[in-house]
Amino acid sequence: MLLIDEQLDKELSAFICAWDDFEKSTGGEDIIDMNLSGHVAGKKYQNRKEILKDIEYFLSLSEVKAHSVIYRKMTAHHYFLRQVMNNDIPFDEYFENTMGLKPVIFTPEKIAGLQEQTKNLLAQSGFEYHTNVVGEIMSSDLIKPSNKTGELLNETHKAFYQWINTILDLNATFDIEYSFLPEGHHFWAWISGDGRNFSVRLNKQRVNEYSISNLKRLATHELTAHAVQASILRTKVERGKIPRYLGYITTHESFQFSSEGLASTLIDFYPDEFASNKAIKLIQQIVRLDYVVYSNAAIRFCRGEPREECIDYAMKNCTFRKEEVARRLEYLLSNKPIGFGYRQVYGVAIETFLEIKGSYPDKNKFVKSVYEDFLMPDQILAMTKRPVADFV
What we know:
Oligomer: single chain
């Protein structure tokens, strides 16, 4: 990857650290989700107008403009901060300039095809397609007591990492602490950290719904994908292989396409002997369908369509329960502008990664590249054999 002038890199790093410090000190949202580059001291911001002025200054620099990845990241900051400051940016424009691609609405034909695949897979295992089928699948292997959850996540990650380690050039070593998310979150889990130490926060309200099959999915998603990828990127920052500024991962930038695409589909790339659990395969298929439908509903909602119409659309086309759909859509509004970005990237990222899995000649090489290279959405989309319009 193209590097930049060391002094400029330091200034960019100091900027984002100072912005993160300001938001934390004033009760705002954390800007840095994963800090893989350490804290760089800089100015102390007094207000967001000062931050916006610096963003616009950096965007004007020829060296920033010449580095497409850094320019995109800074552009994402620009759109995110303006939206935080109540600039009413249209959803499509905001999404494209933060997530790095246009919003994708999946066709009725695509959804019908996924529904048919899902129904057939469920029928082969003796299940019917209905709104609580995931709970029914998981009910046979619920984990109790819940204090075993972290231990089982670690064990599962170690088993799956054995395969990943055979295709990566760099080792990933880190420590994990487990705690609980604040009440009200609909996420099953959330990970944050610095590439060497991570905190995984579990959903206290849902922990009794955790099952062996779902924990294996969580372990690959949060640990074997997110944590390993972050650990490798930190090593590359430390060795001077990528700019330090890129090690400050945010949820409002286009790296989310690579990160969430990998985390959501990694278990699908494993050789069968690692991921032969029938329940896992069923849940993966259901989640695939649900994210495609939810993505459509969320984009329509963000574009201003009535809430109830979006909920009804989702209810008619996926296995989410109504309260789950409503909770997710409310999250988008209550967490604007964060909710107006990466949550809608899951559907197209998952379909893109599975399209590559089905057609790319060297799947291990692709997975290695996603882990070790700071890939942008257009780079990943270029690896598909068909245009996006042909598989959505």
